[in-house]
Amino acid sequence: MEDSPNTMDALTAQIVPLRVKGFTFEEISVKLGVIPEQVIITWKEFIDSRTIMSPEEMAVLQELRLENLLTKVNDRLKYADKAEDYEIVVKLLKELAALQGINKDMKRDAQDKLVQITNAQTQLILQAVFALANAMSGHIEAAFEKHKTIKAIKGELAPNVLTTLFTAEAQRVLTQEVQES
Fold this sequence. Notes:
This protein is about 85% helix and about 0% strand. By secondary structure, the chain is mainly α. The chain has helices spanning about 10-20, 25-30, 35-50, 55-80, 85-145, 150-155, 160-180. The chain has seven helices and no strands. The radius of gyration is 30 Å and the shape is elongated.
């Protein structure tokens, strides 16, 4: 994650892990000995300082939550001696299964989006390359038809002329693709 406990202030570094574990603002307030409003303000400042999570970051967060739940389940099983302990373990296992499904869906969605973006970029690049090749070919043919001397043809095919043509054609193709989207 972008904000590791080492880069957060002390209160934020205590609040964030507790919120990730599912504690309410009131529970955190009691646990840390601060007023609930301060917990809420600190949490909101942390959230506001964050950027929107990428699918990969969201997957990491889900994995951390899964690990946390798994630890709770293991701890409960070690000391389970009443029926209600087993009910809590079953509840935690159901929550764990639900989060695993979410995690799989998020990873699949991220992979699908990445493939879509890659395909779109490849298509755009190929269209631009073909358009540039056609424009350059047309320019070269026109230079041969228009000029009779090698010196004049060289002038039409000089690097600065071709660079200008290349840039103009690339901008035209990319602008056309954006407008069609």
